[in-house]
Amino acid sequence: MLRFADAALKQDVEFLSSTLTEILAERLPPGVFQQLIQIRDLADSGSTDGQGLVSLTRIYAALNPNEAIHIGRALTLYLLLANIAEQHHRIRRRREYDQNRAAPPYHDSCADIFAGLISEGISREKLFAEVSKLRIEIVLTAHPTEVIRKTLMRKYNKIAEHLSARDRADLTSAERAEVLLDLKREITAAWETEEIRQAKPTPLAEAQSGLNLIEQTLWNALLDFLRILSKSLKDATGRELPVESAPVVFGSWMGGDRDGNPFVTPGVTRAAVFAARRLAARLYLRDIVLLQQEISVNTCTVELAAAAGTVFEPYRKILSRLASRLDRTQQYFDNLLKSVPEKNDDILLRNEELIEPLMLCFRSLQSSNLDIIAQGRLLDLIRRVNTFGLSLMRLDIRQSSTKHASALSAITENLGLGRFSEWSESKKLRFIRRELRSNRPLVPIDIEWPDEVRDVLDTMRMIADLPADSLGTYIISMASAPSDMLAVLLLLKKLGVRKRVKIAPLFETAADLHNAGNIMSELFSLDSYRSYIDGFQEVMIGYSDSSKDAGRLASAWELYKAQEDLVEICKRNGIRLVLFHGRGGTIGRGGGPTLLAIQSQPPGSVEGALKVTEQGEMIQAKFGLREIALRTLEVYTVATLRATLLPPAAPPESFRNLMQRLSQTAAEDYRREVHEKQDFLNYFYEVTPINELSSLNIGSRPARRQADGKIESLRAIPWIFAWSQNRLLLPSWLGVGLGLRRMTQMGFQNGLKEMYASWPFFRSTIDLIEMVLAKTNAHISAVYEERLCDGSYRAMGKHFRERLATTTELILALTGHSVLLERNSSSRNAIQVRGPYIDALNLLQVELLARSRQAPEDEKMRKALLITVNGIAAGLRNTG
Fold first, then answer.
1. Is residue 143 annotated as a catalytic residue, yes or no?
2. pTM above 0.90, yes or no
3. Contact 66, 603 (CB under 8 A)
4. What is the pLDDT of residues 193-235, one digit of tens each?
C-alpha cells in the first residue's frame, strides 16, 4: 500500500487504497485478485529488483491478456487515487493554514508577496498600479499524450469532493456513512468505466474539453482568485482591484492549432468558435437571471432611469433586455452549429455590448449609496465579462511557415512568376512589400487549388468572417526569416481580412532561437511591418524542439539568450514585447514549478505581461479542481508581479562565458549521441514504446510531422513521452554530465557552484534536471533492453546508464546534496512512494510489449499495453 510521510495524507491514501482493495475483492475473479495482492505485496516491499523482479516476471509471464488488463487497471487506479489524495491534501493544508489567524500569510500567496514587495522598497502606489495592469494569458492546448479520458477526470474530481466532505468534523454518523458510501460508489464507477478511448479524440472534442473546464472549474475559481487578489491589494495599498482589471485571461489552441494536424480545418475552427460563444451566452444568461432576482431595488441615477424608461424596478428592465439578447445569441450560435441558416438580429457580438449595461447598473448602484449591492453578484459578473468576454477563450491560429510558402508558391506560379519558396529572401521581401502596397487582387477566385493550398486560403477567409474578439494570435511555427511573417500579412490582406490580427513568430529550434533577434530587428526596420503592429509585438518561444535538437541544458541557455536579444531589440525600437512561452508538462519540454520558471527569466522579459501554454494532462493537474485552480492562478500572478517589480540581476560576464562553454559542450555531446551515433534511432525504437504509442487513441494530432521515421520528423511530445515510459528520460539529462565534468576538469568547479548559488536561471535549470534524475530508474531501463532488444543494442544501453550514474554524481556534487531532491522532501517522498508501483507497471509493460510485437493484431494485448502507459504516466505525473 502506498505510504506517505504526512499522517493525514497517509490516512487518506490508506483509506482509498483499502476501499479499492475491497471493491476489487468483490469484482475481480478470485485467482486474479490473489495475483494482484501478491504483486502489490512485492511492490510494497520495494523488491522490484533481485528476487522480487524474478517473482514479478514469473507472475506476468503467466497472465493472459484479460488478466493483464485487470492487473494493469488496478495498479493504475491505486496510483491515481494517491494523486487525488495528494491534491486534496494540498487544498486541506492551505485551508488549515488560512484558518490560523495568528499565522503569517501563506507562503507565496498574494498577501505574502505584496508584503514582501513593500518591505523591499516597492511603494504602495507602484504596487497598486502594476497589479491593476497585469495581463497574464494562459493558453490551453491539447496534445497527443493526454491519456486520461474526461469521463474519468470528472469521477476523480467527485472523489476529491467526497474526501473533502469526509474531513468535516460536524458530520452526523448517518452523514458520514453516506459520504463513505458515495466514495465507494465513485471508486466503483471509476473501476467499471472504460478508460481506453474507442477512437482518437477529434479536434472538436478537444475544444469541448477546454470549454468544459471553463464551465466546471474556472468560471467559479476565477472569482475566488479575484476576491483574494482584491482583498490582499486593499490590505497592502488601501485600494481594491479596479473593476475593469483582468489580470488573468484564457486562450486556447484546441480547434485552432493546425500545424501538422490535418484534422483541424477551417470548418473545425468555426465550430470551436461557435461552441464557445454559445456556451458563453448560456453562462452569462444564467448569471443574469440570478442577478435579476438580487437587484430588485428602485433607487437609481437619472442615467439609468433614462435607459430603462418609466418602469418599476429599472435595474431588472435593463437586465431583462440583456437576458433576451443573450438568449437570442445562444440560439443563434446553436443553430449555426447545426448548420441552420440564421440572421444575426439583436445578438451580442462585441464584448462592449455586454459590459456596458452592466457598468450602467454598477455606476447607478454606487451613486445611489448601494455599493454593498454593486459589490455582490453584479461585480462578479462584470469581472467574468472582463476576463472571459463573449468568446470565453480567444482562439489562437497556428500554422507552419512552409504551408504559407507553399500557398504563395502556387499563387506566384499561377501569375507566371516562378515558385515563391525557391526565391532568395531579398526577392521574397521585395515581392511581398510591393503586393502589400498594391490593392490589386492576388488570389484568383476561379482556380481549383490543391487541397493543401486551399486549406491555407480558406483559413484566411475564415479569419475574415469570424468575430474579431474570438481570435487571439496567428502563430507561425518554424519561423526562420522575416518573409515568414510578412507572408502571413500578405495572405491576410489579399483574402479579405480587414481587422488587425496579431501575428507572432514561433522560434523553436536552437538555430532559430539563436537568430530570433536578427529576424525581428530586420522586421522592425520595415515601415509596412512597423505600421501594422502599431507598437506591440508578441513572440513565441518553443521549449520542445530546441530541447529535442540540442538537449535540455543547451535549450535552456538558447532560450535565455533569445529572450535577452528580443527584449533589447524591442526596447531599442520602442515596441512593447510580450513573450509567449510554449512550455510542456515535462522538464524536457520546459515544464516545472511555475513560480521557479517565471522568476528565473532574464531581466526585462516579464514586464507585467506573460503568455504561456498549459498542455495536455497538466491542465487537469493545475485546473481540474476549483481550489487547485485558484492556487495556480495566484502563483502565476505573484510570480509575474515579482518578476516585473524585482527582476533578477543580469548575470556577470564570467557566468555567461562559463554557461556558454557548458552549454556548447553539453549540446555537442547530446547531438553526437542522438543525431550522429549509428544505430541510436534503432535503439530508441526498440527500447521504448514509441511505435505502439503512435497507433493509440490518445490525441487528435499525428505523432509525426512526416512519416519518414526520423527523429527530426517526430514531434517532441511523443519523443519525451516514450523515454519517460522506459524510465531512462534520456533527452532531459543527456549531455549535462559531460558538460559538468569538462568544466570541472578545466578548473571551473567553484564557478559552477557560485552560479548555482546566486543565478536564479542556472539554479532552476539544475534543480529541474535533478528532479528528472530522481524519476529515472536505470534498473528498469535495463529490463526493457534485455527483453526487447537483441544483444547488439545492449552495449549502447549500458553506456547510457553509466552516463546517467555519472550525471547524478556530478549534479549532487554541484548542489551539495547527499541525495537527489534533498531540499525538496515532498517531491522526493512522492517519487519514492510511487516508485515501486510504477516499477511493477513497467515490468508488466515490458512483458506486454514483447508479446504485442510478436502479435501486433491482438487487440486485448494492445488494450493492456495502453493501460500500463496510463499507469506509468499517472505515477510519474507527467507525460508529454
1. yes
2. yes
3. no
4. 887 766 677 889 889 889 999 999 999 999 999 999 999 999 9
